[in-house]
Amino acid sequence: MDPAMLDGFPEEDKAKMMGMIEAMQTRDSLKMYNNLVERCFSTCVQSFRRKTLEKDEERCVSKCCEKFLKHSARTSVRFAELNAQSMQQMGGPPQ
């Protein structure tokens, strides 16, 4: 969130709002990370014969994580594009 959007609010309220936003972002990041670990582990790990992953499991986990992170990055970029487009439409055409 752009802190400039909070102009006009008292400093105390701005600080509270930014704290809440940071907490939400941290929570969302942890949820995404936990989802990634659960999904890739469930998909890739087939046995518990050893303490370490087997080579094919390790490759699978790496590929799974890579795909998940690329997807998340692309989704974030697309969301930012749509958000900018929406903001531009709300504010009218640029002068």
TrEMBL record:
GO biological process terms held by the UniProt record: mitochondrion organization; protein transport
Entry membrane topology: Peripheral membrane protein
GO molecular-function term, one example from the UniProt record: metal ion binding
Tim10-like domain segment(s): 21-81
Major localisation: mitochondrion
Keyword match Transcription regulation: no
Function: Mitochondrial intermembrane chaperone that participates in the import and insertion of some multi-pass transmembrane proteins into the mitochondrial inner membrane. Also required for the transfer of beta-barrel precursors from the TOM complex to the sorting and assembly machinery (SAM complex) of the outer membrane. Acts as a chaperone-like protein that protects the hydrophobic precursors from aggregation and guide them through the mitochondrial intermembrane space.
Domain comment as written in the entry: The twin CX3C motif contains 4 conserved Cys residues that form 2 disulfide bonds in the mitochondrial intermembrane space.
Subunit structure: Heterohexamer.
Name of this chain's protein: Mitochondrial import inner membrane translocase subunit
Keywords: Chaperone, Disulfide bond, Membrane, Metal-binding, Mitochondrion, Mitochondrion inner membrane, Protein transport, Translocation, Transport, Zinc
GO cellular component, one term: mitochondrial inner membrane
Subcellular location: Mitochondrion inner membrane
One Pfam family named in its UniProt record: zf-Tim10_DDP
Entry's family note: Belongs to the small Tim family.
Record organism: Ostreococcus lucimarinus (strain CCE9901)
Keyword Protein biosynthesis: no
